[in-house]
């Protein structure tokens, strides 16, 4: 472990930017987002979560796989006839009358598809990730292969292998955080090359990989002191206490399986407007489309993010759409993350960041959905699932919205 | 289609340079089949000289023209877009251009709002018998766009 | 305000109890004391969750076109503020919803709080918002608290609102509020309109490079009723491609905006739904400003009108050039 002074952070990032493109959370127009960092950019670490995860830096929202051009090389018919064009070759010249002349067929018209593959990857250092963001990469790693999965994706791998993930543990989890509920935590190091924990005047830094150890070689790091280590542990413990565990994991997969045909999916998805915000802000949603965009005889093959709420997510070429109905698409997302993926990879496809709750236009709450459909709570009107400070899924404390003080206390439970 | 300098001598009306800053300007002209396209055709038959750097898209009626097509043309690299249809009252389909008139007016007002110079979009009415008017309309428009040069916008 | 809430509950309760409706769509509590969500009440217990307060920003009309689980012949009760009612009027103008199957509870509105204005004042998350008259109190989980003047927190568009009372309703939740008089004004556009074309282009390019094409704006828009068959998703032919960057992103938004021209009252549901806070009002308010300038037209005001671009006058004074 080492210690980095807060005031040395800009110099540290500048040092890293000598060898790699640095990405860090920054506040622009009141919004915190992961953005390319350059000297002078202020890193925003007060706000807990950047609006989107940093997955777009390793798994971009769109990328070009390859470019292609189609060429017709020559015309194989003699103009004006249906006769194959022939080339006449004078093979030899011997005196008057010439030598033998042999007619040979012209080369057949052929089509040439010229393909240029694109696979450049720039070294990146992503600083300021939270444990849930970093964990998202580990979850996607399993899918894109090279890490024990079924399929190896060279495009993902090209970026992932040259990316260094510097995680800063959480000081004040949000009420929508539930990382502990999915096997993570606000100071978890899964996926981190280095884990930074904020302490007075700086950060305690611990490496968890060779890449991380190399980062800690930077001369600006100081020896860490006992009180600093203790302060880091305290900060982590305090943050852990603030994160709720809104549902039981044990019964989740079986509950989802048992509830597959339940009418409750219709109820829970009522206010869903079937956009794609939750999947796009999620650190580990990875579904994608591959499309060819062609103009006349040239084009590009693109990969772009898809989302399972997209009404045409499962639209087939025949026109049939197995998930035509909104509740079935809604159900699919939760099943994918908490049943199908775990069945293949023995891990959840959710890191509990809560962005899907915060940015959903109608505030669909994944914790509520899983509490109900995961089979460990019977749904009753007005019952809440999770909330600020609740340590074990108890009903949220009374909350008041609106009304005049003269009306007296009106307690409303979150749904 | 690059207008060559020698046509400058040949034409009576002013003909645009065509090549500006090393690349030809691209103007898309959306013409209704019954009036404006016929009018343009008439201009061609009468050998009235016209700029060379516009391409015509023929539609049955300006009522069919979605304003989004104009934005799409700009997005894909058009430097100017011109729409021409039958005169209001003379639409081959009776009412198409009455609807179009409102859409195009809204479109005209929105174009500068997107950072596109207003001179890059124009809508008008040219009838089948107005070959000379077509020559004037298209020459004026394309010359104006050529003076502005290729469009350099990044938003659209 | 709270008696409007009581009236809404009363009306919903009666309508359900009397079997006049199958489901009542209103606003209710979200996951914490600062959030409001759309609520679908089908019995007396669920009616007790219905709320009315300045955080009730959703335009509930968005659910009326094919987004609800109910069968097509179900009877639906719905709460609408002034701006919401205009989108409902727009749907009625086109015959897209069956008036006979709707029970409309109109809610006269004093203005909706812009949640973003509160959130910007805190580094940590706001978990509770209470409104006492003209004072708004916002609190974080750690207990940090700030007081605000309610008028200062309202959505920018509320300051220029000309239709705070519902334009169509079966019952009204309480007394109507005074209707502003005079011509519409567009203060939110002033700054943008003062920019040069190059500056506008630069600003739009910067703003639309943030778009993540999530479709929240389109799906939250009540008059974007194609929603699950939106042409923005079409591949053959492709109007908009899969590159998520300008100019495609702006083209995407222009499809949305232009398709609702004449039916959009600038209710702002799209602005509020956007997860990356793109100022969509720069486009739809400008469009509506021009329609007003051209034709004196305001969308969704009278059920018997036709949307401006679906009608014409023989002497429309356009295209003289």
Q: Secondary-structure map with pairings?
A:
The complex is a heterotrimer of chains A (415), B (156) and C (321).
Chain A: E1 2-5, H1 9-16, E2 21-28, E3 31-36, E4 62-72, E5 86-90, E6 101-105, E7 111-117, E8 124-129, H2 131-144, H3 154-160, E9 163-168, E10 194-199, E11 202-207, H4 210-215, E12 222-223, H5 226-242, H6 252-258, H7 264-268, H8 277-281, E13 288-295, E14 298-305, H9 326-345, H10 355-359, H11 366-373
Parallel strand pairs in A: 2-8, 8-9, 9-10
Antiparallel strand pairs in A: 1-11, 1-12, 2-3, 4-7, 4-14, 5-6, 10-11, 13-14
Helix pairs in contact in A: 6-9
Chain B: H1 6-10, E1 19-20, E2 23-24, E3 27-32, H2 36-45, E4 54-59, H3 67-75, E5 80-85, H4 96-110, E6 121-125, H5 131-148
Parallel strand pairs in B: 3-4, 3-5, 5-6
Antiparallel strand pairs in B: 1-2
Chain C: H1 2-17, E1 23-29, E2 36-41, H2 44-47, E3 76-80, H3 82-93, E4 102-106, H4 115-119, E5 126-132, E6 135-140, E7 145-149, H5 150-153, H6 156-159, E8 171-172, H7 190-193, H8 197-208, H9 216-220, H10 248-259, H11 269-273, H12 281-295
Parallel strand pairs in C: 1-3, 3-4, 4-8
Antiparallel strand pairs in C: 1-2, 5-6, 6-7
Structure write-up:
The complex is a heterotrimer of chains A (415), B (156) and C (321). Chain A is of the alpha+beta class and 415 residues long. In chain A, strand 10 and strand 11 form a beta hairpin. Chain A contains eleven helices and 14 strands. By secondary structure, chain B is an alpha/beta fold. Chain B is 37% helix and 17% strand. The relative contact order of chain B is 0.23. Chain C has two domains: 268 residues, no CATH class; 41 residues. In chain C, 31% of the residues lie in helices and 13% in strands. In chain C, strand 6 and strand 7 form a beta hairpin. Chains in contact: A-C, B-C. At the A-C interface, helix 8, strand 13 and strand 14 of A face strand 2, strand 5 and helix 9 of C.
């Amino acid at each position: 472990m080492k210690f980095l002074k807060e005031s040395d952070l800009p110099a540290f990032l500048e040092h890293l930017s000598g060898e790699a493109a640095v990405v860090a959370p920054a506040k622009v127009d009141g919004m915190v987002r992961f953005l390319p960092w350059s000297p002078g950019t202020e890193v925003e670490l007060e706000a807990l979560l950047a609006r989107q995860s940093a997955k777009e830096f390793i798994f971009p929202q769109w990328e070009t796989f390859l470019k292609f051009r189609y060429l017709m090389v020559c015309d194989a018919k003699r103009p004006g006839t249906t006769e194959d064009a022939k080339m006449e070759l004078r093979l030899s010249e011997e005196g008057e009358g010439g030598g033998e002349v042999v007619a040979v067929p012209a080369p057949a018209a052929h089509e040439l598809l010229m393909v240029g593959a694109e696979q450049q990857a720039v070294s990146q250092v992503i600083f300021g990730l939270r444990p849930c963001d970093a964990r998202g990469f580990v979850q996607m790693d399993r899918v894109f292969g090279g890490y024990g999965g079924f399929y190896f994706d060279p495009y993902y791998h090209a970026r992932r292998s040259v990316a260094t993930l510097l995680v800063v543990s959480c000081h004040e989890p949000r009420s929508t955080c539930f990382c502990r509920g999915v096997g993570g935590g606000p100071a978890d190091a899964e996926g981190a090359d280095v884990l930074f924990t904020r302490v007075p005047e700086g950060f305690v830094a611990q490496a968890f990989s060779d890449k991380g150890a190399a980062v800690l070689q930077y001369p600006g790091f100081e020896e860490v002191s006992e009180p600093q280590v203790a302060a880091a542990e305290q900060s982590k413990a305090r943050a852990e206490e603030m994160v709720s565990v809104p549902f039981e994991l044990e019964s989740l997969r079986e509950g989802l399986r048992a509830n597959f045909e339940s009418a409750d999916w219709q109820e829970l998805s009522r206010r869903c407007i079937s956009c794609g915000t939750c999947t796009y802000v999620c650190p580990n949603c990875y579904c994608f489309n591959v499309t060819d965009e062609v103009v006349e005889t040239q084009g590009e093959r693109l990969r772009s993010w898809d989302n399972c709420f997209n009404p045409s997510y499962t639209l087939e070429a025949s026109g049939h759409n197995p998930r035509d109905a909104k509740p079935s698409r809604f159900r699919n997302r939760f099943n994918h993350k908490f049943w199908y993926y775990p069945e293949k990879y023995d891990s959840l496809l959710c890191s509990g960041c809560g962005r899907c709750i915060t940015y959903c236009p109608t505030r669909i709450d994944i914790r509520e959905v899983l509490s109900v459909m995961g089979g460990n709570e019977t749904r009753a009107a007005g019952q809440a699932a999770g909330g600020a400070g609740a340590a074990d899924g108890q009903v949220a404390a009374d909350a008041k919205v609106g009304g005049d003080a003269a009306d007296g206390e009106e307690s409303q439970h979150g749904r | 289609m690059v207008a060559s300098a020698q046509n400058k001598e040949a034409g009576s009306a002013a003909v645009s340079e065509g090549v500006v800053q090393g690349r030809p300007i691209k103007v898309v002209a959306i013409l209704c089949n019954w009036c404006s396209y016929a009018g343009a055709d008439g201009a061609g038959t009468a050998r009235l000289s016209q700029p060379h750097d516009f391409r015509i898209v023929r539609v049955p009626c300006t009522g069919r023209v979605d304003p989004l097509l104009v934005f799409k043309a700009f997005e894909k690299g058009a430097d100017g877009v011109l729409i021409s249809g039958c005169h209001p009252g003379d639409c081959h389909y009776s009412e198409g251009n009455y609807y179009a008139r409102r859409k195009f007016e809204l479109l005209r007002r929105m174009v500068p709002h997107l950072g596109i110079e207003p001179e890059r979009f124009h809508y008008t009415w040219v009838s089948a018998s107005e070959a000379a008017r077509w020559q004037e309309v298209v020459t004026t428009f394309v010359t104006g766009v050529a003076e502005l040069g290729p469009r350099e916008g990044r938003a659209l | 305000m709270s008696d409007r809430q009581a009236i809404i509950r009363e009306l919903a309760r009666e309508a359900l109890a009397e079997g006049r409706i199958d489901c009542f769509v209103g606003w209710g509590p979200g996951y914490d004391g600062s959030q409001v969500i759309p609520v679908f009440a089908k019995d007396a217990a669920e009616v007790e969750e219905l709320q009315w307060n300045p955080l009730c920003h959703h335009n509930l009309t968005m659910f009326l076109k094919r987004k609800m689980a109910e069968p097509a012949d179900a009877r639906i009760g719905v709460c609408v503020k002034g701006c919401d009612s205009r989108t409902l009027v727009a749907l009625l103008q086109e015959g897209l919803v069956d008036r006979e199957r709707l029970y409309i509870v109109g809610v006269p509105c004093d203005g909706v709080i812009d949640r973003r204005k509160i959130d910007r004042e805190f580094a940590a998350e706001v978990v509770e918002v209470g409104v006492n008259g003209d004072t708004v109190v916002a609190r974080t989980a750690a207990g940090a608290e700030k007081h605000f003047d309610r008028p200062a927190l309202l959505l920018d568009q509320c300051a220029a609102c000309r239709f705070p009372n519902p334009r169509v309703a079966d019952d009204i939740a309480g007394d109507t509020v005074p209707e502003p008089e005079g011509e519409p004004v567009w203060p939110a556009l002033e700054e943008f309109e003062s920019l040069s074309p190059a500056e506008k282009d630069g600003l739009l390019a910067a703003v639309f490079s943030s778009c993540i094409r999530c479709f929240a704006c389109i799906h939250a828009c009540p008059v974007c009723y194609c929603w699950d068959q939106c042409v923005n998703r079409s591949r053959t032919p492709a109007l908009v491609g899969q590159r998520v960057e300008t100019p495609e992103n702006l083209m995407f938004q222009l499809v949305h905006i232009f398709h609702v021209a004449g039916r959009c009252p600038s209710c702002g549901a799209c602005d509020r739904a956007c997860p990356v806070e793109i100022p969509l009002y720069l486009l739809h308010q400008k469009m509506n400003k021009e329609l007003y300038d051209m034709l004196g037209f305001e969308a969704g005001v009278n059920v018997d009108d036709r949307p401006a671009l679906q009608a014409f006058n023989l002497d429309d004074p356009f295209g003289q050039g």
